[in-house]
Amino acid sequence: MSRIAFPALLAAALFGAFPHVAGAATTDYAGDAPEHVWNCIPFSCPGRFGDHMGFVYSDILPLDLRAGDVIAFDMARVNDMPIDLILSLGSGDDFVTVARTDKGILGDTVIGNYDVTFTLTESFSFAGGELIVDFATTALSATDTNYEAGLVGSASNPHAVRRYFSGMRPGDMTHSDTAANANMRIDQAAPLAGIAPVPLPAGLPLLGGGLFALSFLRRLARRG
User: Fold this and answer.
1) Is the dihedral of CA 160, 149, 53, 184 positive or negative?
2) Is the backbone peptide bond immediately before 34 cis, with ω within 30 degrees of 0?
3) Domain limits, the chain
4) 20 to 30 A Cα–Cα from 109, which one of 27, 81, 196, 199?
């Protein structure tokens, strides 16, 4: 047995733990091209249609989001002031505030790059089905009253159900319609590497002990 092979076998026999890193996942909730540039709700005129605006998406698979994941939307024009909204996720009347618009976001003219980002600061678990994405105005965004069309969506988006605006609370559908839903991207970051024990095949630890003993006896024989 070579000097390299034996240590490798012994390590495999006595230890069974290796780092495991799950891959990141990016999911777009959008339709086929071409995309459409809709109106100003919610990113460009929240001062006129707050306090709560949002979108309803259907047929969403179960989600397990955590701090550091990103939910993003797309703009096709530069806003006249930074976009500043509080993002909550929920279903029915149960909502969790998970993020605020990343600082300094103005949008851009590139379609498809999902430039309006919300980096989550709270975790959110969703069993699947109909997901409501709510945007609440802040003191800053309440002053944005210009009508600047720029929201990017797809008329063929199979997940888009409704949008709502001028709500008094998250998910308030008093004022709602089926027009101008937003394309949405959820970008789940890869978790940190951890040590995940790997179950050892039956008898492998015994084999490792035997190999160790055999090596010890061979060394004694050489000395004799």
Assistant:
1) positive
2) yes
3) 25-188
4) 27
